[in-house]
Design goal:
alpha/beta, 8-stranded parallel sheet
């Protein structure tokens, strides 16, 4: 089979056809891991490092694709609704830590949402409906980045917007189930409003000829979904269905990310027309073989190599075997993009991540042959 470029390889895979070989994806390199790669690249750390060094590091490692966070949304912060003092006091929230997304952060860490009453939900839905994508100059700039890295052999897939994650995190996990029970239609309206701005953001990419988009939209924990799956289907599926329909109308593909155990929601993702689900977190019980058997013809499976058990604590030999097993379990017929089951963590060993990629290049060519001796 003739070697494909990275973009062709990914598109072919998402179409559930066999490309030249299994593609690879990195979500994000934690900076300490990027520094490990920089050392191997022979770059002097004392000098100013380019803001794009993570993408250069991904090329050095041999990845085919990586996320590029590009959430260019004008949120009009001067119109942000005020959170009543009694809410701030009751939930121990500092007003200067509340973002336009109605989320409370302490430093870099999310702590809570502030939409604790139906009145606040209504106000914030109206506020979200004033949001708009940033100016066209930003998307022209990203198109140059996209084209530049394609020439270097890396697909920089833009991430932006949110539906499932923002819906629960704007309310806060301590009040989310209550709001669904008591004010279900308002929660649906919140998800719908978030879907609208996400769609408008994605359209700005599609208009520039960018045909792959990711939503980082966490809705699951290690052993379950944050939502009751029934309610997830009623709240999120209609929005995803609209986003997938819009992407496909413009010749693009919609990919969704959620850590945790998403198994109960995969049928709903398929029903909505989503093209791929990432990262199938191994530590949350996600296993490729049964997922491929049940869902592999209908949605692209992405990720799954354990970032902790294998890439951090394992040996090179462990990594090679885990990678070969993943290829054996999920690659036949296309519809599988291999990567870590999370970000590339600061704890991951350089040698293991490199072994993962090298193993794909050695054993991941189509047609897939038996790699694991029974």
């Amino acid at each position: 089979m003739i070697d494909m470029d990275v973009h062709e390889r990914i598109i072919k895979t998402l179409e559930h056809e066999e490309p030249d070989r299994v593609p690879t994806l990195a979500q994000f390199f934690d900076y300490p891991f990027t520094k490990k790669v920089v050392e191997k690249m022979g770059i002097d750390e004392s000098k100013h490092l380019s803001k794009h060094i993570m993408y250069e590091a991904a090329i050095h490692m041999g990845f085919d694709s990586i996320w590029y966070h590009y959430d260019r949304i004008r949120t009009h912060s001067h119109k942000k609704p005020k959170v009543p003092k009694e809410i701030l006091k009751e939930y121990n929230i500092k007003s200067d830590g509340v973002t336009e997304w109605a989320q409370y952060y302490e430093g870099e860490w999310y702590r809570d949402g502030v939409l604790k009453t139906p009145e606040l939900l209504k106000e914030w839905i109206a506020y979200i409906n004033t949001w708009e994508p940033a100016g066209d100059i930003h998307f022209k700039s990203f198109k140059k980045i996209w084209d530049s890295y394609l020439q270097k052999g890396l697909v920089t897939i833009p991430t932006g917007g949110s539906v499932a994650f923002a819906s629960w995190s704007m309310i806060g996990i301590n009040k989310f189930a209550y709001m669904i029970r008591k004010h279900f239609n308002l929660v649906k309206e919140l998800a719908k409003a978030l879907g609208r701005i996400t769609k408008e953001l994605q359209n700005c990419f599609f208009e520039k000829g960018i045909d792959l988009v990711f939503i980082c939209d966490d809705w699951a924990l290690k052993g379950s979904t944050i939502y009751n799956p029934k309610y997830w289907n009623e709240i999120v599926t209609p929005v995803y269905k609209e986003l997938a329909k819009n992407a496909h109308k413009q010749g693009a593909r919609l990919l969704i990310h959620s850590d945790g155990d998403v198994s109960e929601t995969i049928p709903y993702l398929i029903n909505s027309g989503v093209d791929g689900i990432d990262p199938l977190e191994y530590e949350s019980g996600m296993r490729l073989k049964p997922l491929k058997e049940e869902y592999g013809a209908d949605i692209c499976l992405i990720g799954n190599i354990s970032a902790t058990y294998v890439l951090t604590y394992g040996t090179i030999e462990d990594t090679i075997e885990a990678t070969k097993q993943a290829i054996q379990d999920a690659a036949k017929g296309g519809g599988f993009i291999l990567g870590a089951g999370s970000d590339i963590l600061s704890t991951c060993k350089y040698e293991n991540v490199k072994a993962m990629i090298d193993t794909v290049k050695k054993y991941g060519s189509y047609p897939i042959r038996r790699l694991i001796e029974k």
